[in-house]
Write a structure and sequence with these properties.
Elements: H1 21-30, E1 37-48, E2 51-62, E3 66-70, H2 77-85, E4 92-97, E5 101-102, H3 108-114, E6 116-119, H4 131-138, H5 145-150, H6 155-167, H7 183-195, E7 201-205, H8 213-226, E8 231-235, H9 239-245, E9 248-253, E10 256-261, H10 263-267, H11 270-275
Helix pairs in contact: 4-7
Length: 285
């Protein structure tokens, strides 16, 4: 996909009424999660020329769960996502997905085919194509780009694109070129391009970075909506955004998991305050 230049429903469960992780998981179940583990790492390690970026990480994510990863720069958050999607290979440990498939043994394209979608911080869309065409090209279909642009869509496929346009807030802009959208709209379009491929797990790297306050709020609401029927891991540095929209949070530090729980719970953890929260500003830290 062409990378553009970066410019400035379902029931949702709002965060923070309990310190008990079990309560948060129960709230997730209330919006449709079945409770099964969709992703699990065991003893995961990633090394670069002898530097251990990920150190023995044991991590589990349930179906239908929205999980935020936070931590200072260099904590290993993005590297963990890279290991899940196959961008980097673990030096030790396993990454099991949806019933036991070890992703550590698979190539990146095969992992995507299994139902894992990855979005990086900068939006990556086809800037010269319309919003509609971006979504159409992204649909799961066994054909090339030219065939996808010239073939006739079925009524069901057109309905799916229309549904996606409404979900991502672009139903009034299907014929606009992708490059003409605001930064936030480009982010939503790329999320829609991933969703239309029907992933079971979405990996999002700072989806709200560079957005206006209104776009940030809409993005948080979108995450809650789409988490009703799929799992999502979000790497985020914006602590205000995390406090407002996180259900469960995993804090990483020096390649390890330091703490997990609700935002209220981790804010009361002295280790977290020392290595992360106490050193950062309230927004865009």
């Amino acid at each position: 996909m062409e990378e553009t230049v970066q410019e400035p429903g379902a029931a949702s469960v709002m965060p923070g009424d309990s310190n008990d992780v079990a309560d948060a998981l129960g709230a997730i179940s209330a919006v449709g999660a079945v409770g099964a583990v969709v992703l699990q790492t065991e003893g995961l390690e990633v090394s670069f020329d002898g530097f251990r970026a990920i150190r023995g990480v044991d991590f589990a994510l349930q179906r239908g769960e929205l999980r935020f990863l936070i931590g200072p720069n260099g904590a290993g958050k993005t590297t963990l996502l890279d290991a899940i999607c196959g961008k980097v290979k673990p030096s030790r440990g396993t990454v099991r997905f949806d019933g036991g498939t070890d992703l550590a043994k698979l190539q990146e394209h095969r992992i995507a085919q299994l139902g894992i979608g990855r979005k990086f911080q900068a939006p990556s869309i086809f800037a010269e194509l319309t919003v509609w065409d971006n979504l159409e090209l992204s649909m799961k279909q066994p054909r090339g780009i030219w065939a996808a642009l010239t073939a006739r869509l079925s009524g069901e496929q057109r309905s799916e694109i229309e549904r996606m346009l409404e979900l991502i807030g672009l139903k009034e802009k299907p014929r606009l070129q992708g490059g003409s959208l605001s930064h936030g709209e480009k982010q939503w379009l790329e999320i829609g391009m991933l969703l239309i491929q029907e992933p079971k797990l979405l990996l999002l790297d700072e989806p709200a970075a560079g957005m206006t306050d209104k776009e940030t709020m809409q993005t948080g609401e979108l995450l809650h909506t789409i988490a009703a029927d799929r799992s999502i891991i979000v790497v985020e540095h914006d602590m205000e955004f995390v406090r407002e929209y996180a259900r469960l949070v995993t804090v990483m530090h020096e390649g390890q998991i330091l703490c997990e729980g609700t935002m209220e719970h981790i804010q009361q953890d002295e280790r977290v305050a020392e290595v992360y929260l106490g050193r950062r500003g309230e927004r865009h830290a």
